[in-house]
Hints:
Structural class: alpha+beta
Order of helices and strands: HHHHHHEEEEEEEEEEHHHEHEEEE
Number of helices: 10
Radius of gyration: 26 Å
Largest sheet: 6 strands, antiparallel
Number of domains: 2
Bound molecules: calcium ion
Helix content: 25-40%
Number of strands: 15
Oligomer: single chain
Amino acid sequence: MAGLVLSKAMLVAARPLPGNKVLIPAPICALLPGMSKPLQASEAAPAVRFGSLALLAWLWLAAGMAGMAQTTAARDWRQEVQADWLLQDAKRMLPPAVEQKVRPEEDAAGGCDGVKNGQWGFHTEAQDNPWWQVDLQARFSLERVVLYNRCDGTAERNSRIRVLVSEDGQDFRKVYQHDGTVFYGYTDQKPLVVKLNGVAARFVRLALAGQSYFHLDEVEVYAIGAQQNVALGKPATQSSTSQWSKPHSPSPLAVAPVYPIATVLERGFKLAESLRRLGAAVENEAALLRELKRQAEDLPPEAPAQARRELYFRAHWAVRAMALRNPLLNFDTLLFVKRAPTMFPHMSDQHYGWWSRPGGGICLLEDFKTGQPRARCLTSDLPPGSFIGPELSYDGRRVLFAYCRFYPQVADMEKVDKEKLPADCFYNL
Ligand SMILES: [Ca+2]
């Protein structure tokens, strides 16, 4: 997300780069809404005109081309662009991050925050007998606990997970121990359901015996005769924190947007100044920005949020139109690589090839300056695999990229002994 946040500010200062290609860093593509699904197949690649200015091109993409996803998501791409502006501006206004140790309660909140994604909601240190618990803030007759495990390769750590309950938060008694089978939750929609048969408790604790890290995606607790998860949003804590712990606080978009019109206008005027030096015809947009500035200044403090919202988006659209008038953007198609998310935060695994996750491809975004951008995948005929690159030839007619095929059984093979592995599970140009 940092790339998205930086992108608009850097647009103003972007400079042409040597070379004749436009490359989109994969993490940007991974962040684009709707681009997590495979793109549609296409015919052979046409000759593609590319200009220089790689930096500006991908920054623009990051800032505003989310619309490309709409060909597959069937949503109004302009709404996606606007949502991205709101997110960027909200993040710009967050107070500066202060390096401080995450408290156990802050990390533990991720175990009952309603977010289920197959990753870890909380994460202790490797320690003896780690635990996590939630305070239901009242005594309930409990019907069941539903446990969503991590689904990214560490699920077996919880195969002998214990469920304990307490009425006072001091004395806990074990009411369940799992039988050693691995369970998941998010990926197979089969979380571990532990029946509690009406046991009375205010505190529910999950624990492991022996030395281990402890982490779960989400914990749900249901009382007899009730439909709602009584653990949701309740105070939680855990036995320790780790380098993977983080505070779980509301998203910046969860609070009401503030529509910083003045900031958008200020950036727009600076961009206009910069583009004039390049000979771009930006006077129409600059005049519009001046008019919007006048309207914003006339807006009474008690004006409804809708009025501010309208001015805010009009200003953003004007700035965007201006950015696309950059004479260095003298091409209509962007080339980029789309990649699958990594296992854990291990980007290196994606580069090993035989350990990488499949997905993505070499893609084009055509007519990116128009109101109808289109994304196409050039490699959809290849079997599932991973992609690195692309590099573009000097005349923009040939693309060089690396590809490795994905074999599900490789995960069960001796991965260190490479002689046993299929040759094309390594990257080939
Ligand atoms: Ca969670």
